[in-house]
Amino acid sequence: MSLTVLVPENDVVPPPADEPGRPKWTPPLDAEGLRYVLGRVKDWKPLDVEEVFDDLDTAIGNQPPPVASTGALIDRLRGHLKQLSDIAVADEKYPPTAEMVQLVGRGRPLRDQRTPADHQQAVGFARRLAFVTSDLVEELIEARYIKESE
Fold first, then answer.
1. pTM recorded for the entire structure
2. Which secondary structure element, helix H or strand E, spans residue 28, and what is its range?
3. Taking CA 93 as the corner, what is the angle to CA 88 and CA 96, rounded to the nearest 5 degrees?
């Protein structure tokens, strides 16, 4: 005759002594790593292709950008270029084309370059950023990595 023990469902029953133990689970990130990931998620902004084209038009259009807004335009173009570069190289299943790799390589030093203090030089710098950004966004649309705005 075997003995049966009834245990309420909410009680924890330790495993038998002869059963091999499992390694204790440890989370993949510590508290600081989780804070970092949370901050990145909170700061994430989805790509707005229409906004990219608006900024390209402002930088490359017939009229140079106004003095007061040139610095902000350059910062936005840097952000667009960074985001587009990340999209180009993000998925290992769909490697970037040679043209994408070249454009990402051309854009990296531009993103790191300081904004010139002189307005004319800043406009020229904004246009260089805009041309690389424009070529990269067109390449990504052509390769169907992103959709063109409606």
1. 0.74
2. none
3. 30
DSSP states along 96-107? PPHHHHHHHHHH
d(CA 15, CA 18): 8
Mean pLDDT of the region 68-84: 95
User: For 133-145, b where at least 16 C-beta lie within 10 A, e where not — what string?
Assistant: bbbbbebbeeeeb
Among the listed residues 107, 102, 113, 115, the one whose alpha carbon sits nearest the alpha carbon of residue 131: 107
Query: Where does the pLDDT of residue 23 fall: very low under 50, low under 70, confident under 90, or very high at 90 and above?
Result: confident
CB distance 127 to 85 below 8 Å: no
Query: Dihedral of CA 35/39/42/44: which sign?
Result: negative
- DSSP letter, residue 54: H
- The residue type at 42: K
